[in-house]
Structure of Putative transposase:
Amino acid sequence: MVGTFSQIYIQYVFAVRRRENLLEKPWREEVFKYIAGIIKGKNQKPIIVNGVSDHIHVFVGLKPSMNICDLVRDIKNNSSNYINEQGYVKGKFSWQEGYGAFSYGHSQIERVYQYIANQEKHHEKKSFKEEYIGFLKKFEIQFNDKYLFDWIDQ
C-alpha cells in the first residue's frame, strides 16, 4: 500500500478556567465556529463543537499525523486569544488546564453528535462534574477527584 488511510474520532471535553460561566449565549456560537475553523486550518475534520456556559465538547475526525494534544493546545490557545480580542468577557478569558479526550468508532458518530448537539438540555439534569466523571468511568480512566477540576469548592 502506498498511502495511509484512516480516520480517528476524538471527543475533547474541557472547561472554562475555574469553571466560570463565561461562555454567554449571544456570542458562544461564534466561538464554536471559530474553533471549527481552527480544526479545519489544521487539515482535520470538525464534526461538531458545542457546549454550555462553563465547558465545551469538540468532536473531530483526526488524521494519524495530528497529535491529539497539539490540536487541543491550538484550539485552547487560539480560541482564548479570539475571545479576549473580541472583548466578550471582562478581564482575561482562559480555559482550564487539561482536558478529556475520548475515542469513538465510525458507527458511534451519530450518537456522539446528537449527545453534543443537545448539551443545553442534557445539563438541565446533570452537572458538568457528573458528566465528566461519567466519561472517565465509562472509558475506564483512573482518576483522583482531588485533581479533576481547578475550582475552589470541589
Remarks:
- The mean pLDDT is 92.
- The first helix runs from residue 25 to 41.
- The chain has five helices and four strands.
- Residues 77 and 94 are 8 Å apart (CA to CA).
